[in-house]
Structure formats: C-alpha cells, structure tokens
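Sequence of 5-formyltetrahydrofolate cyclo-ligase (Streptomyces hyderabadensis).
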Amino acid sequence: MTPDDLREAAEALAGRALALPEVAGARAVAAYVSVGAEPGTLALLDALRARGVRVLLPALLPDNDLDWGEYTGPDSLARVRHGGRMELWEPAGARLGPDAVTGADVVLLPGVAVDGRGLRLGRGGGSYDRVLARLTAAGAHPALLVLLYDREVVAHVPAQPHDRPVDAVVTPSGVRRFR
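Predicted 3D structure, token representation.
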C-alpha cells in the first residue's frame, strides 16, 4: 500500500469505528498505537480524545502483560524498544496498572486476522489474551473490537480453548458483528 493508501485506510477505519454506537457512547476506550503494517490508529485516537473520551494505551511489561497509561495527544507518546524484539509507541506518562483496562467501555484489539466466528489471531505474545482474561475475572464486559484491513478477515484462524470471540471487526470498508 502506498502512503496515501495507508492514510486513506486509517481515516476510513477511524470513521467506521467512531460511528459505532458502543464507541460513540464510550467514556473510556482502551486502544493501541499501530506499528508496522497494522492499520493506522492515530486518527482514531485523536478523534476519540477530541470527543472527550479517556483513551488508555498499553505499555508492554517484561512478562508480556500490559500496563496502561493515558493518551493525551502525540506528545504523550514515547518510542520504546523491548529487548531485541520491537519498538512500540507507548504512553510516556504515569502508569495506571494492568487492571486499568477493566474500566474501559470499549477495548480496541490489534490482530493479524479474525475469522467468521469472531476469533482473533494475535501476534503470539499472549498480551491481549491476558487482557481478555483480566476483563473476564473482573466481570467487565466492554465491547471488544478488532481493527483490521479487509483482507485480514478470513474464513478460519487456529483457536485455543482460552480464545474468546470479539464483538466485531472494523475494517476500512465496513463493520462485521459476531454477537
């Protein structure tokens, strides 16, 4: 995809996500800053913030769990290298603890693919599996949305017994609900 294609896809993705009732009514959204080939999320983060939504972003911990911090604009981000693995944009401010995600009305999840059952394939680190388990343990029921490109919605992904389906996948061309 060209830089223009990527920008247009990010803007379309943001527009689709912002139009969802669960996002429109959210007071707090747990999200992430896209990296590499992931669909762009900064336009969405800035639009949420402009609406007065509290935006929580993850910070990767050494054990692959996630802590959370607040996004207050591009200046609130720091580029963090995690060992020899990857560089991520994370919140530069105070950490709120791994349980902060349980207060979100919506959790935006990254992924590699999602299938027709609503099962999400992640990158294999288990970070978001822990987030989903934490939400279940806390009795929290935020809307779970995956942000992907259209070609990443596939017929089937491998599943484990602990995998939990998401509520919907948002792509630049539309929204597909699973429950």
